[in-house]
Design a protein that fits this description.
Rossmann fold
Length: 259
Amino acid sequence: MLHYRTIGNNPHASWLVMVHGAGGSIEVWYRQVSDFARHFNLLLVDLAGHGGSVGEAFGNGFNFERAADQVMEVVNYLKIGKSHFMGLSLGTIVVRIIAERNPRRVESMVLAGAVTQLSARARILIKAADMFKYVVPYSFLKRIIAKVIIPQGRYSTSKDLFLRNARKVSFDSFLSWIRLGEGLNARIAHLFNEYLTIPTLYMMGEDDGLFLPQVEQTVRYSGENASLVIVPDAGHVCNVDNKSFFNRVSLEFLKRVGA
């Protein structure tokens, strides 16, 4: 089973399940825990190959569906019924798959730094990483990826957080995520081109040039249950870059839909 951490055990409070992205861990939520724990019971999960789940096997043919099943295995183990879900970066795909497979278990979704489609630049990044994975040192590859995803120098805190967590990710796990990126658009197109029935808030940093344009397009076709908020002074890891704005707006949304 995946490594996880729970915070709070209030029988009258709803649960919020938090799913990080590739190269991260539950540590990416460190700026949310204090504020969110005042209103919700929190479940933070380390995906396979990350954080405390480094030793968790990916299994043959690992994919986002497998990741979603592993998260729900923890949710079921803890006997959590309907809950809110928050995802970051590629973790937003895991959350969307959970919602698709278990719609009655998802109260709402907050998708931060969402990945709804890979731009040409992102596809080139993945192709280059795959091409040079056995030639360029692994540590250097991770720095290049961080530089492309978070190019702005003023967001050094989130970049350092990514690199610190990425050190814990094994080379085999890195290769598994690279393979997931190949043909990603075709595999997730149906997830983000359908009318949403679950209240969904997209939170995107204003400087997230790699993914924001695609999310803006996605939201236009997702119906009245989907909304987009641009986080000022933030890049891809918007929950870290502008904690105050992110926490205030997402908490307002979660409390409103849970009322």
